[in-house]
Amino acid sequence: MEYSSRKSVVAAIRSYTIARGVDYDVYESERQTFYAKCKMYGRGCDWLIRASLIRKKGCWEIRRYNGRHTCTTRVISQDHSKLDSDTVAEAIKPLVETDPSIKVKTIIAKVQSRFNYTISYRKAWLLKQKSIAKVFGDWEESYQALPWWLSVMVQKMLGSVVQIETRPLYNGNEEAQGVKIRGKYKGTLLVAVAQDGNQNIVPIAFALVEGETADAWHFFLRGDWQPPRAWWMFRIRHIGSNFLRAFKVPHLQKLVVNIGYSRMMEEYNINYKRLEERGEAYARWCDAIGLRHWVLAFDEGHRWGHMTTNFVECINSVLKGARNLPVLALVRATYYRQAGNIVVHRFDRRNEVFEVHEMTSEKVLVVDLARRTCDCGHFQVE
């Protein structure tokens, strides 16, 4: 048999050995030769193999082979000595490339199905990270490349704002935690999302932070991107969950939620009185929140009827797999998946004229809202 390289012939020998539950010792491993014998050689098994580089053909060939193992084979459930990280990482590479969020248990099952060996959870997790690095880039190097990539993105996306704050990785003799993301390095991706008059969900800003802390939110919201007309509101689901946690009265949770959904003053008074009749402590707990932060009747229309963050969850679903990637691949995913299709380069508010750059075709088109025309020939706004 012929092989294109030394690596490919060694991989074939390794796969053969793993699949049959046997093992071998390497007796010679040079640039032009690979020679191995069964671990039981001379003790009931004469299996050996020698592969060499044939210079004239420019390929590797099996020059000597004693046939099948004659030693007693047995199927074991633990790791094989030849089932190294490179072999498994290469095997699961297509799975990780398709779905970076693939569960570790799925990887364990895949390895067991292919190689007939069950690897440990920790080994499977480490192999997943190694495979992700092979496909999407090195975990550590991605942090080094991130500032450069962002600087190029800002030049391409005129009007974009990027702000980076770094902290020392080491403080004296004590090791401090760096910024982490889910995967090998954990963390939190903060997202600011808006919705326009046509019910389109528009991501405004992203931030990668060490965790969902007060300092992290302060860094995000005080940035140069300036949140447009933002108001502080509570998600009604969290109000209901916190109420249940505080009082352990499930039959009143729905009533609290109904108070939040009250659109008219009269409706609010009716629901609030019902809650107060069941206990003043419940009503006082609601009073402490602040009416304009959670009741529709008092929010002055700032939340446009949105009592949950379902449209933010839509963004989360788009970025589900990306959250498991190295930081540079994660940032690039937010760019290409969210803002990479069309870029607005010029907007004349008085004339309602847009100049957009279509990223996929690299065309520059002008949209005139007043005249209802577009250079593409098809005006899509109803």
Q: Overview of this structure, please?
A:
With 382 residues, this protein is an alpha+beta fold. Among the domains are: 2-65, no CATH class; 85-136, no CATH class; 236-298, no CATH class; 341-382. It has helices at 6-20, 85-98, 104-115, 121-136, 139-156, 214-221, 236-247, 250-260, 265-277, 280-287, 310-318, 327-339, and strands at residues 2-3, 24-29, 33-38, 48-54, 59-65, 170-171, 174-175, 188-195, 201-209, 342-348, 353-358, 363-368, 373-374. The strands form four sheets. It has a five-stranded antiparallel sheet with strand order 1-5-4-3-2. The N and C termini lie far apart (66 Å). Residues 4-61 form the Transposase MuDR plant domain. This is Transposase MuDR plant domain-containing protein.
What's the layout of helices and strands?
Layout: E1 2-3, H1 6-20, E2 24-29, E3 33-38, E4 48-54, E5 59-65, H2 85-98, H3 104-115, H4 121-136, H5 139-156, E6 170-171, E7 174-175, E8 188-195, E9 201-209, H6 214-221, H7 236-247, H8 250-260, H9 265-277, H10 280-287, H11 310-318, H12 327-339, E10 342-348, E11 353-358, E12 363-368, E13 373-374
Antiparallel strand pairs: 1-5, 2-3, 3-4, 4-5, 6-7, 8-9, 10-11, 11-12, 12-13
